[in-house]
Amino acid sequence: MSGEVKMTRRRAKTKHSQPNGSEMSSSTSPVSPDPDASPPSSPEGHQDPPQESPLLEEEQEKVLEIVEKCEKVEKLPLVLWRNPITVLQYSSCELVLSLLEGAQALARYRVSLAVTTAIVVLLVSVHNFPGSHQESLFDFEKYLLWCGWWVGLGILSSVGLGTGLHTFLLYLGPHIAAVTMAAYECGTTDFPTPPYPSQILCPPGEEAAGEGGARALQITIWAILSKVRVEAFCWGAGTAIGELPPYFMARAARLSGSEPGEDTEEFLELQEKLKHPEKMTRFERMKYSVQQLVEKVGFFGILACASIPNPLFDLAGITCGHFLIPFWTFFGATLIGKAIIKMHIQKIFVILAFNQQLVETSISFLVQVPYLGPKLEAPVRNILAKQKEKLHNGGASDQGGSILSSIFEKFVLLMVTYFVVSIVNSLAQSYEKRLAKSKHVD
């Protein structure tokens, strides 16, 4: 495809240069004197220079447009559904090379690596050494693994430049909603542990809030917020960690002066489009406003961008890396914004959306929907009743929510599949760029 594009360009240039060359050759070639020929019209005895025909210019523009279209077709991204074998091969090679490069980079920090290895060996020895401390140590390890689970989900949510797994909608949001509904139903947040947090049950001997309603009045938003604050903070910290790769890539490209990566190219393309601001789309103007806020305001600009649900925050990390903003300025503002401010906004929204009064109000509005409303009221109330029953009898009636849970599980599976496919495509495209760079160097 590239050879055909080059041949098309050469033909366009040749076609454009042939009239000029032929006229120049005819003007420079010796001409036999003609006695009947009229004298030259110019006073100096020279002919006027040949002028290009407007038709030739139009043809040249058309040829160049065809060439540009061919280049766009040639630059179609390498994805799994077009070239599955090539994508799998390239992604595997890129994964191996990335692991080797990471190991080489880690080997440079020998002191830190040695200290970390010594701490891990010490913890493993204490873990396997018999004694009365093992029960407390197992509880602490279980708690750390639980926190690490939420941190990992947060990283998956923000890593990947927009193609991350939306773990708030899939995991943290439903968890907060379940705790909220259980708190109003049980009249308390002191759920027995275990099985909490894997399973939520009302404490034995507690009266249901739906019967008396007096204990439900004691449940406040702050009580539910404090119940889910640890997992919410860990998830928010994970999202802050997931924003670091664009920052480090842009910073490394700026310091080394090497060719920009895929992440930095988006930033540089935006700088080129600023030369013609009237041609920028609304989305590109929003990107530019985020860049200006981060570049001019600094810490508080980053904090403002991180404190709200912002799909353009990747550009903020690239901007900070490109302009060499200190690491702790960027990460500190991102951590405070995402793990504290934004998480409290999201938690309050979910808690307000799933409190008893609002759920009953939503069902009353659902009944008013013509034709479908009366038919959906009974199934929705049945699901809520069985969910409340599970809080008291230890999940004995689990068949009622099987349909809803199976639908949710399939939705989660689709989201995870899309996330894995996007990672495979990204690895294959990175390896393709690596091959192109090596050919260019050779």
Describe the model.
The structure is a single chain. The protein has 442 residues and is mostly helical. The protein has 18 helices and no strands. Helix 3 (84-107) packs across helix 18, helix 5 (134-158) packs across helix 9 (229-242) and helix 6 (167-186) crosses helix 15. The longest helix is centred in the C-terminal third of the chain and has 40 residues, at 402-441. The model is unreliable at 1-6, 15-44, 207-214 and 396-401 (pLDDT under 50).
Give the arrangement of secondary structure elements:
Blueprint: H1 2-28, H2 54-74, H3 84-107, H4 110-128, H5 134-158, H6 167-186, H7 209-212, H8 221-227, H9 229-242, H10 244-256, H11 262-273, H12 282-297, H13 299-306, H14 313-322, H15 327-353, H16 356-367, H17 372-393, H18 402-441
In short:
This protein has 18 helices and no strands.
Outline: globular
Gyration radius over CA:
33 Å
| Largest sheet data | none
Q: Specify the number of helices.
A: 18
Q: Which class of secondary structure composition applies to the elements?
A: mainly alpha
Beta-strand segment tally:
0
Poorly predicted runs: 1-6, 15-44, 207-214, 396-401
Strand content: under 5%
- Distance from first to last alpha carbon: 21 Å
Helix content: over 70%
Which labels suit this protein?
442 residues, mainly alpha, globular, disordered N terminus
